[in-house]
Design brief:
There is one protein chain. With 598 residues, this protein is an alpha+beta fold. It folds into two domains: 364 residues, no CATH class; 207 residues, no CATH class. It has 23 helices and 17 strands. The protein has a five-stranded mixed β-sheet with strand order 6-5-7-9-8, covered by helices on one side. Strands 10-16-12-14 form a four-stranded antiparallel β-sheet, with no helix packed on it.
């Protein structure tokens, strides 16, 4: 069973390093980590709405990472592996304390490691693993507090640090501390546990230490505003995604009630995830039946109920929210396995889960989406310079400065701006400091749908080189006798492309539609420009040197509408498309295929 568990984990190294595309959050967390690694103070020097411990822990690693593409983020994935090892070691310690035998413990671990419910988000660099490991560490110490007061104090410190790593654990942490105050799992009694007071002391001490840092760096007010006030406002205004909680519980069974064309996908069946949920809920029931004499597993089951209830109450629920759930299910699964008399049946179940895990790890990758992400990140780095500004909704340009204070654009930021709790990205800001590139990802396009004044300016100053990478290129359909003014985004030799035929390209009528269209016929948008040419009726040379911030004007004396593009550089193809089915957000459904790692 140990071998099955270890090889199941090893198989997931393939998606970690080669087959699993970047998640938006990974880019956010990498950039925050990198800024801290180079001396920035969170909240004071850059906007964020998560608690920052993860970034401080991994900042020493980020100091040695110099890449600008997906490889830089994936290096952090590799650096996170020791935290996962620690998390499972701590889960094993909880099971040992509960008296569960080695076979049951390793089988439960193997089932979790064979589960895509856990392992799909587990390969990503995100705050959930550190928060979960610290929480489990706090539980291990808290369940030993009858031995030493120092264990109770240390548990409080770890619980506080878990919240500083992942704010979403806050309600679970609060209930944990209160439950351990009224339950004595060693004596198996409901009674006041005085030693648990030292847990509160540990929480206060760790919180005071963090507070001293934020006061000393002058970032406490910004922390309160960004993490507490803005998260509250964003949650208050957001519309809940109805059905998200049951959706994620049904996904391991191949059932999709949201976000998929097919209700049932046989290729998406996750035997490990099914086993985690079925055996986990059975274990939950078994442990809760011991409420009259509450032991360690009763405490864990009670906290699991709290964790599930809080997740179900959230307005936005994603698969990574279940990482802590799966880890807490592991001891409960082990107690069920220990009760099964026929262990051959359990071995057979794990073997099937292992095979499905291998299939999901190798044959269900999205390596072409990862390659496209890498292409966009490389292109934006090659076409801009250090110190240049880039505007987008995720932060893809890892080594460039954000054009807007909100350097990534989750729904929270849209709500804050829409309800006038934060300053929008004003047209005046663009005119004063034009970005050197725009990445038209999902979040950016949603933002432009809200801020129409900014949309009108951007789509007339930039044009898609790739579907999602917009390069500086003043463009318009100019009617006879009409005059247009632009602000030059970057220095360069701008080549003139103009013709009545060009005016018929869909970009000039529906720019956001063209920038977000992902169907197979999107290839028809591709535009081959030919050679630049002077147009006397426009009063413009074939090539003209222009400078950033310069205001230019063009008037048409032509007798028909003219499509006009002023493009710097040497590109002669616009609206390039990735392979069919590939998106920057990796939003398309996974399909079974032989991976194309090369």
């Amino acid at each position: 069973m140990v071998l099955l568990a270890l090889t199941a984990a090893a198989l997931r190294l393939l998606p970690l390093g080669w087959l699993h595309p970047l998640n938006w959050d990974e880019i956010e967390f990498f950039r925050a980590t990198n800024w801290i690694a180079h001396g920035a103070v969170p909240f004071r020097d850059f906007w964020e709405h998560h608690t920052p411990l993860q970034w401080f822990v991994f900042a020493p690693v980020a100091r040695f990472i110099t890449g600008h593409d997906a490889g830089a983020v994936m290096a952090m994935r590799w650096a996170q592996i020791p935290i996962w090892i620690a998390a499972f070691w701590l889960a094993n310690q909880l099971m040992r304390r509960a008296g569960l035998d080695a076979f049951a413990r390793w089988t439960a671990i193997a089932i979790a490691l064979c589960s895509s419910l856990l392992m799909t988000p587990a390969v990503e660099f995100r705050i959930d693993v550190l928060g979960s490991a610290l929480y489990l560490g706090g539980l291990v110490l808290a369940l030993r507090m009858h031995e030493k007061r120092a264990f109770a104090f240390g548990a409080g410190v770890l619980f506080c640090l878990a919240g500083l790593a992942n704010l979403r654990l806050g309600p679970l942490l609060a209930v944990t501390v209160l439950l351990l105050r009224v339950v004595d799992p060693i004596e198996r009694k409901w009674r006041g546990n005085v030693r648990a007071n030292w847990i509160f002391a540990g929480v206060i001490a760790a919180l005071a230490g963090a507070g001293i840092y934020f006061v000393a760096t002058g970032s406490l007010r910004d922390l309160y505003r960004h993490v507490w006030v803005e998260n509250y406002l964003g949650d208050r205004y957001a519309d809940a995604i109805v059905g998200a909680f049951p959706h994620w519980l049904l996904v391991p069974f191949g059932i999709r009630i949201m976000g998929a064309k097919d209700f049932f996908d046989p290729g998406g069946i996750d035997v490990g995830g099914m086993s985690v949920l079925i055996l986990g809920f059975i274990g939950l029931y078994v442990a809760l039946r011991r409420w009259r004499s509450p032991d360690e597993l009763f405490v864990l089951a009670s906290l699991q109920i709290v964790s599930l209830a809080f997740i179900a109450a959230m307005k936005f629920i994603f698969i990574y929210h279940f990482e802590i759930v799966v880890l807490m299910f592991v001891p409960l699964i082990a107690q069920v396995i220990e009760r099964v008399p026929r262990r051959n049946a359990i071995v057979g179940l794990v073997a099937v889960a292992w095979i499905v895990n291998a299939y999901a790890s190798i044959l269900r990758g999205k390596e072409l989406d990862l390659a496209y992400q890498n292409t966009i990140m490389n292109e934006v780095d090659a076409r801009t310079h250090p110190g240049d500004l880039v505007w987008d909704g995720v932060g893809w340009a890892l080594r460039r400065e954000p054009a807007y204070r909100f350097w990534f654009l989750p729904d929270l930021t849209r709500q804050l701006v829409y309800h006038r709790h934060a300053e929008r990205y004003r047209v005046e800001d663009f005119v004063r400091r034009p970005p050197a590139a725009v990445i038209g990802d999902h979040n950016a396009l949603v933002w432009l749908g809200m801020q129409r004044d900014l949309q009108r300016v951007l789509v007339r100053h930039y044009i898609p080189l790739w579907r999602n990478l917009w390069v500086p290129a003043p463009n318009v359909v100019l009617q006879p006798g009409q005059t247009i003014d632009w602000v030059v985004p970057v220095d360069g030799d701008y080549r003139l492309f103009a013709s009545p035929a060009l005016a018929r390209h869909p970009w000039f009528r529906q720019p956001l539609f063209v920038g977000s269209y992902t169907e197979p016929d999107a290839q028809h948008f591709e535009l081959h420009l030919g050679a630049p040419a002077a147009h006397p009726e426009l009063g413009w040379d074939a090539v003209r040197r222009l400078h950033r911030g310069e205001r230019i004007r063009m008037t048409s004396s032509a007798s028909e509408p003219m499509g006009i593009i002023l493009l710097p550089g040497s590109d002669d193809v616009l609206f390039r498309q990735p392979p069919i089915g590939v998106t920057l957000e990796a939003a398309s459904a996974r399909v079974t295929h032989v991976p194309r790692i090369w």
